[in-house]
């Protein structure tokens, strides 16, 4: 089925909006169109076995037994409908449309009815009936051909996604929160599963796939299709969790129709209520929303971080509250299968991120500690940079992170960085922020380069050598050192320092504060090179005024802060015989992990500030992945003569145009 057919069917469904206009706000159209599309799809799927189900219902009529097993068997699916009603029959009886539709929906099996309940379908039926629109809406959908032989499951996903995109536009939401472009999913699944191609062709192989932010289920379907394309006899079980009720309902109904267990798709928040917490999976993939805060689940996440430690998911650290991306990754890592003694088992993970998780957070921050945990455990296999403007809700640059706890020998201890930012084709028509797409050739080329990454990086003659680099894990680590310089002061009494002295709280607390300041004022204009000389002069002036010299550490500190003035040539201040650091001159340096920091100080700092030293008690280990820096290519500016010639040509053109106007 081509894209024009998808659009045609989506247009048919969305044409119901013409009926709703006036009685419904535009932002509410999807609340009617989406559940009716799901209902019509379920009806079309069940149509071939309708008579068989009716016979089964009649056979067990009046018997006190659970008929669910027999009805599922008769329908050929994990769901069924016991009624002899259809949408066409209901539309033909407008007066009883609401009552009959309620009966029809109630006759579905519990799992199918639960899907419709998430749309609050009963309320929509009542509202449509009150507006005298129900039978008209039903009539529109009876003409919509969604039979599997006309619209295969894979293509049905495109129709749902198109409807969700339109719904999101009308309600001012972002479609990217619900689904990911299919070509992006295709590439992601290729990179996730590519290294396991041989293992997946073993007869009777069983694989589990998990998406903790599954949306409409596009990634799960693509992963299942990819595995089955490698081995049609493979058994693939998919699992997921979704917070958005409409997306959850579509995903669940899609899996029901495909014969997957719909109970595997849980509804709820993956952070506060993880449905598959005790399960482990072969493949885990996700496209969590970018830059979404996790304030709503703050209490649950922080409790798990503080009290569960390694037994929980978030022991490594917590990112800043306004971006939960790295929480999703930790959640996914917690669901990896362990690797057994023979190297079997293990899992592979793929997740879509924006650029923030690569470098946000200084050494010691939650983000840095999460990156450190991942790299020191040697789980990060690769990061792939994608073109910008690939997604519906954002034009920013995005990246695939590929992780595994069973790296191949040539990847152990190393990370691949692959630059695929130039692998795209322009779309003929933009969809939201999406102006670029990955063509089949781009997907094939990136997949091939990913397989050959280590060899391509090592071979300068490889055609794509410049697009891939391989680094040791430690290359992304650094030591954040604190470089101190001594506090140097000269001491003076000026109007400015006197004002500061009078405003100091320890001075204001003196019984004779005004007389004390007046005594110091007699030294106005005096300057001393050392603190001891200054103190002697000040004490003499105060005693000469008939006052006692104040004591105590707070007073001594306030006095020095008032009359002491920073001076590069001033006296070095000391505390317990050691130079006192000047907080205003404090600086920080990032030193590559493994490098001697004292050697770095001598080489990079001492030539400029010989008296600097490192406060080793403040040194922190950090990790960041500066992807774009590693692929930066310097482009020299154009020669000045060329720019000058261009400016003169433009000036001449402007003069010519002005001449035409004045003639």
Automatic annotation (TrEMBL):
<dbReference type="InterPro" id="IPR051537">
    <property type="entry name" value="DNA_Adenine_Mtase"/>
</dbReference>
<feature type="domain" description="N6 adenine-specific DNA methyltransferase N-terminal">
    <location>
        <begin position="9"/>
        <end position="141"/>
    </location>
</feature>
<dbReference type="GO" id="GO:0032259">
    <property type="term" value="P:methylation"/>
</dbReference>
<protein>
    <recommendedName>
        <fullName>site-specific DNA-methyltransferase (adenine-specific)</fullName>
        <ecNumber>2.1.1.72</ecNumber>
    </recommendedName>
</protein>
<dbReference type="InterPro" id="IPR002052">
    <property type="entry name" value="DNA_methylase_N6_adenine_CS"/>
</dbReference>
<dbReference type="GO" id="GO:0008170">
    <property type="term" value="F:N-methyltransferase activity"/>
</dbReference>
<dbReference type="Pfam" id="PF02384">
    <property type="entry name" value="N6_Mtase"/>
</dbReference>
<keyword id="KW-0680">Restriction system</keyword>
<dbReference type="InterPro" id="IPR029063">
    <property type="entry name" value="SAM-dependent_MTases_sf"/>
</dbReference>
<dbReference type="GO" id="GO:0003677">
    <property type="term" value="F:DNA binding"/>
</dbReference>
<feature type="domain" description="DNA methylase adenine-specific">
    <location>
        <begin position="154"/>
        <end position="455"/>
    </location>
</feature>
<dbReference type="InterPro" id="IPR022749">
    <property type="entry name" value="D12N6_MeTrfase_N"/>
</dbReference>
<keyword id="KW-0949">S-adenosyl-L-methionine</keyword>
<dbReference type="GO" id="GO:0009007">
    <property type="term" value="F:site-specific DNA-methyltransferase (adenine-specific) activity"/>
</dbReference>
<comment type="similarity">
    <text>Belongs to the N(4)/N(6)-methyltransferase family.</text>
</comment>
<keyword id="KW-0808">Transferase</keyword>
<keyword id="KW-0489">Methyltransferase</keyword>
<dbReference type="InterPro" id="IPR038333">
    <property type="entry name" value="T1MK-like_N_sf"/>
</dbReference>
<dbReference type="GO" id="GO:0009307">
    <property type="term" value="P:DNA restriction-modification system"/>
</dbReference>
<dbReference type="Pfam" id="PF12161">
    <property type="entry name" value="HsdM_N"/>
</dbReference>
<dbReference type="InterPro" id="IPR003356">
    <property type="entry name" value="DNA_methylase_A-5"/>
</dbReference>
